[in-house]
Structures are given as C-alpha cells and as structure tokens.
Amino acid sequence: MTTLEFSYSLNKLSSSLKPFALKLTRDMDDANDLLQDTMVKAFTNKDKFTEGTNLKAWLYTIMKNTFITNYQRMVRRGTFVDTTDNLHYINSGDILVENGAFGDFAIDDINNAIEKLEEVYKVPFMMHFRGFKYHEIAEKLNIPIGTVKNRIHIARKLLKGDLYMYQHRN
Q1: pLDDT tens digit at each of 170 positions of the chain
Q2: 132 near 101, Cβ under 8 Å?
Q3: Which parts of the sequence belong to the RNA polymerase sigma-70 region domain (predicted)?
Q4: Whole-prediction pTM value?
Q5: Does domain 3-79 match CATH 1.10.1740.10?
Q6: Could you tell me the residue ranges of all domains in the chain?
Q7: C-beta atoms surrounding 100 within 10 Å
Q8: Distance between CA atoms of residues 93 and 136, nearest Å
C-alpha cells in the first residue's frame, strides 16, 4: 500500500474512531487529541501494518493503547516517591476529608428526581442504568429501539434539569 493510499484510508476511518475516542475520554477536546495522536502513531508506524488485515481494528488498538498509556502517565505524574526510610508511594493530591453529608444529600436528591419521572421514562432509564443494552430494553418493553433511546434521552434531560445545582460541583 502506498503512502497516499494509506493516508487516504486513515482519513476515511478517522470519523468512525471519533465516537470511540469520546467514549474513552469523555471530553471532546481530549477525544480530538487522542484521535490526532492515534493518526500520527498509525502514520509513523505504517510499515508495521500488514496489508490485507483489518486497518480499522489496528487503529482501534492503537487508540486504546494510546489512551491507556496517557492515563498511566497522568496517574504517575500525580504520584511522587517519599524518600524517607519507609519509601511509600503517596498521592500528591490535596488532602481532603469529607464527612459524606453532601454525598448523602446528593443521593437523596438523585433518587427523588428519578422517582418524579413518569414511568414511561423511568423504566427504560433505570434498565439502562442497571446495564441493559438498548436492544434488550426494547425487547423487554416491546417497543422500538428508537423509542427506548428517545425515552432515555428525555429522562436524562429531565434529571439534568432537576439536578442543575450539582452540575459544576467538584
């Protein structure tokens, strides 16, 4: 495969990688950075790609490994080695002690907001929250998959509105 063909194939597949990058990073800017890092690594290592194999799978593997490496690097950056005799690894983050009261209030507010949802929204939302896939919810409730996705979306939107006070809290 020529460099031009390889570059064209990478460009064509980049749009299908973006949702995976967003799922990994949960941030659009970080997803774009991860996608760019993946493309650069793929292009610089094009000689390691075996023609006739699945390029898309190869790119997904590069992306996943890049994400893991970046995550591990970030964790290491936040940890330092204590050079005292005990040689403990200590997280360097600020020490913060909470009594959990805020968390209890938040959980109560979340549960109350969920209870206020209409059943048509609450049931699919809770099934999805418990780990059911969209198609499983559709089968169990005997409704189209598009309806399931729509009801879960509406439930999230309603919950976001009810729980706006927690939106920018760390």
Answers
A1: 788 888 888 889 889 999 999 998 888 999 999 999 999 999 999 899 888 899 999 999 999 999 999 888 887 777 665 556 555 555 555 555 666 666 677 788 888 888 989 999 999 999 998 889 999 999 999 999 999 999 999 999 998 888 887 776 54
A2: no
A3: 17-73
A4: 0.47
A5: yes
A6: 3-79, 101-166
A7: 8
A8: 41
Which position has the token pair 């000689």? 47
For the domain made up of 101-166, the CATH class stated in words is mainly alpha
Q: How many residues does the chain have?
A: 170
Residues facing residue 79 across a β-bridge: 91
d(CA 15, CA 43): 16
Supply 133's token pair.
């896939």
- Backbone phi and psi for residue 167, each to the nearest 5 degrees, phi listed first: -60, -45
